[in-house]
Write a structure and sequence with these properties.
The chain is α/β, with parallel strands linked by helices. 30% of the residues lie in helices and 17% in strands. It is found in: Periplasm.
Length: 389
């Protein structure tokens, strides 16, 4: 799915290339971010909120994978570093820490850290091998999140008298050969595990009864696997249901009333976009007390302020984490938007895809490779836009 372009007027925050060129000489703040994850209004509001004028450059990239590639390029000594912060998906966090692509954040300098719910704090608190650790360092600042959902064709399923409500519905005979899935082992195995009442981060797949049979039966239902174009078959009548990320599904729903979607009642898989600091951040290569250092903390804190969080939640296809577990201050415009903010009963049964041990990861790969997967798969899209697995 092609993302919409971000257009920012010359009177607001300037866009500039963050690749190549000479080493920066200013004390401005430079951010490389996932396209459509920050509305232009938020960038303008941040500039107005600064206590003193500061050069700002916010540059969008259409895919998380391309940002990871940029981090890898910046790691080389020959490459000039020109970004203070970048967007990273939580699925890439372990790899980025292990490869020393990023550095920890000093959350003590960011006033809004206490606004972030504990599950999101725990997600980014890790040791130097990328494993979850309560005594670890904070490697990212979550600024929005979403979930895996089931999208479906209302016009095809309503005449049959039903719509999907939970993962088990994907096995119904009405969807035989009419399902498109991401080409992602963690996502597909995760939904099977949820159907069986297990954790998506199951450490020992061999201990899950009937897992391989359920996975094979789901494969029989599937017509198309792709991690980038899984919604296309839904739009052209090739499939009637698809599993994917709410950040992809919500924009399609807004443009096509035939498309419905649901967060499964038994819980789902969550993801979060994070602000992370490249290992060779320019503000740490010069004066650690530089203006950009302060602006970096101000920007992260600004994203967690209620007004900004509301804009992020309403004007992008994801929600701010500060509204995830506390609905007491939920703005009226965000109520009844269950694809962005699922009910608490669903959230309590939902999970992030956490790092697996080498032995567990091998079991996931083995279960996936054992599938016939004779459905049409996109060989060029083996890596999900949301998952590094």
């Amino acid at each position: 799915m092609k993302r919409r372009s971000l257009l920012i007027g010359s009177s607001s925050v300037a866009l500039a290339a963050l690749v190549g060129g000479c080493r920066r000489r200013d004390n401005g703040l430079r951010v490389l971010f996932l396209e459509d994850s920050v509305p232009p209004q938020v960038l303008k509001a941040f500039r107005s909120a600064l206590s003193q004028p500061l050069p700002l450059s916010f540059v969008p990239r259409p895919q998380l994978a391309s940002i990871v590639e940029q981090l890898e390029t910046w790691q080389t000594a020959e490459s000039p570093q020109t970004a203070d912060l970048v967007t990273l998906g939580d699925a890439w966090l372990t790899e980025a820490i292990q490869q020393k692509l990023i550095q920890p954040l000093e959350v003590s300098s960011i006033p809004g850290w206490e606004r972030v719910p504990k599950p999101w704090q725990d997600l980014v608190t890790r040791d130097r091998q990328g494993a979850l650790s309560a005594a670890g360092l904070v490697w990212g600042a979550p600024y929005r999140w979403g979930s895996v959902a089931i999208a479906f064709r209302r016009d095809k399923l309503d005449p049959l008298g039903w719509q999907p409500r939970d993962w088990a519905d994907l096995w119904r005979p009405e969807l035989a050969g009419m399902l498109s899935l991401p080409d992602s082992p963690r996502t597909v195995l995760g939904l099977v595990l949820k159907k069986l009442g297990r954790s998506v981060n199951e450490a020992n797949l061999a201990a899950v009864p009937n897992l391989q049979n359920e996975l094979a039966a789901l494969d029989d239902q599937t017509k198309f696997y792709s991690s980038t174009d899984y919604l296309q078959p839904l739009l052209i009548d090739d499939t009637w249901a698809a599993v994917g990320w709410t950040t992809d599904i919500l924009p399609v729903m807004q443009g096509d009333p035939r498309i419905g979607a649901v967060i499964p009642a038994s819980g789902t898989m969550l993801f979060s976009d994070l602000w992370v600091r490249p290992a060779r951040s320019p503000s740490t290569e010069s004066d650690p007390g530089a203006i950009a250092e302060s602006a970096l903390a101000q920007w992260i804190d600004f994203c967690w302020q209620p007004e900004t969080a509301t804009r992020l939640s309403l004007q992008t296809a994801a929600a701010s984490p500060i509204f995830a577990l506390d609905a007491s201050d939920l703005p009226a415009d965000l109520r009844n938007r269950e694809l962005r903010l699922p009910a608490e009963s669903i959230l309590q049964k939902s999970e992030f895809l956490l790092p697996l041990s080498p032995a567990s990861a091998a079991q996931f790969r083995q279960a996936w490779s054992a599938l016939p997967r004779q459905a049409w798969a996109d060989p060029s899209a083996q890596q999900s836009r949301r998952s590094a697995a």
